[in-house]
Amino acid sequence: MSTALEKFQRLEATALWRQTPDAQRRDVIVSLGDATLVVKDSNDRALAHWSLPAVRRLNPDQMPAIFFPDGDDGETLEIGDDYVEAVEAIEKLRKAVARPHKQSGRLRKFVLAATALTIAGLGVFWLPAALANHALRVVPNVARQTIGQDMQHLATRLTGQPCRSSDGLPAVDALQKRLKIRAITVVPSALREAIALPGNVVLLGRDAVEDFEEPDVAAGFAVAAQAASPDPLRGVLESGGITASLRLLTTGMLPERVLMRRVEELISAPPTAAADETLITAFESKRVRLKPYALAKDPSGESTLALIEAAPFTGQLPEPVLNDRYWVALQGICGS
């Protein structure tokens, strides 16, 4: 099987992809990965990951070939006559990984019955967490990034369009690089502090950059959000239930309704606070002063006294989060 994968990994084909029955077909590029079929746009951005064992063909022996992920025949991939070699490769690989071993009928029934009983007995407590843990271990970074980007887009239904003043965008870019966060988006409403999304993406509320004197506060909200949710995809799967984990394992994607539900939960719920020890470690790792953030959370300092007293960098300060020019630009990113 590994030899077959290596042989076909260089194959690519253009195709027509439809995500849902109501969506328009769009031109995509199809390539074969490690036991996955990857659907990409013209900018090489992954749109879907289908597990080869779950790939099914809607019209055997007919062209153009139409494939779909098992359990969701509303999402389709159409490959035309110009790429017969790619179609044959997909057929060979999906049949190879799905080929069952011959068993006696009695033994097979016994195994299936035992498996069903085991799943029924453990499913309520063990299976959802086990599936989620497995999905979190095997899902590739590109899938996490795609999910984070999709959630970022869906959040605009609640927050409004992201703030994008021409002067402010370079400041956001500087903040991303300083904090080693792949994408930071400042949103104009519905969010006061920050939330962490999969793929190292952070949404930062307008108030976090406009209501405070120091960039360390805005940076602190971003650092604290990631410290409170070290793997935001876990929250998505826990919110979506067992079907979300199964969908992610078989297709590499999650339904929009699951992502939107999690976005609504994150924005509507009070910010989750990490333990003080976790916050101190996170701020030290990102080299961000903790005291400005602690005083922003509680100006009296009473409830955050432990953070203030344990704040790192009380002696030699780290390099500034942003220079004055960038900080002023970031504060005006949402306009008047």
Protein model, in words:
This protein is α+β, with helices and mostly antiparallel strands and 336 residues long. Helices cover 49% and strands 15% of the residues. The protein folds into three domains: 2-98, Pleckstrin-homology domain (PH domain)/Phosphotyrosine-binding domain (PTB) (PH-domain like); 105-138; 141-331, no CATH class. It has helices at residues 2-8, 84-98, 105-122, 127-138, 141-159, 168-179, 206-210, 215-228, 232-240, 242-251, 256-268, 276-286, 291-297, 305-310, 324-331, and strands spanning 12-18, 26-32, 36-40, 46-51, 55-57, 65-69, 76-79, 183-187, 194-197, 201-205. The strands form two sheets. The protein has a seven-stranded antiparallel beta sheet. It has a three-stranded mixed beta sheet with strand order 8-10-9. Strand 2 (26-32) and strand 3 form a beta hairpin. Helix 8 (215-228) packs across helix 12 (276-286) and helix 9 packs across helix 11. The longest helix has 19 residues, at 141-159. 36% of the residues are buried.
Classification by helices and strands: alpha+beta
Radius of gyration: 24 Å
For the record, give the distance between the C-alpha atoms at the N and C termini, rounded to a whole number. 60 Å
Count the E strands: 10
Helices, by number, come to: 15
Whole-number mean pLDDT: 85
In helices, the fraction of residues equals 40-55%
As a percent range, the share of strand residues is: 15-25%
The main pleated sheet reads as:
7 strands, antiparallel
Overall outline: elongated
Name the helix and strand elements from N-terminus to C-terminus, one letter apiece: HEEEEEEEHHHHHEEEHHHHHHHHH
Give the spatial strand order of the biggest sheet.
4-3-2-1-7-6-5
Q: Enumerate the spans where pLDDT stays under 50 for 5 or more consecutive residues.
A: 1-5, 100-104
How many distinct folded domains? 3
